[in-house]
Here is the input.
Amino acid sequence: MLRVLRFTTEAKAQLAELEAAPARHGALKQVRKALGFLQMNPAHPGLNTHEFTSLSTPERKMFEAYAQNQTPGATRIFWHYGPDEHDAEKKRIPVITIVAITPHPS
Here is the structure.
């Protein structure tokens, strides 16, 4: 099931920062690939998606997906499910909210 990706203001700014940095072209390419996998299948093995418990709450689970791995400062994507939307015919549109795109703390 294809999901719609929505970005928080912070995530939009982080993506724009990546896009504006020619030296980070490789990381941008990997982030875009990871976002595509996330949109198609959040459990894609290449994402190594797992719950990020320190940011999760009882109301909303937060997840971390890998855009890069085994790289110093590897880029991670933090996201959660929802809130889902509905089209004109009241059909549910599943949404993933991208909260942050950030280097993994070393």
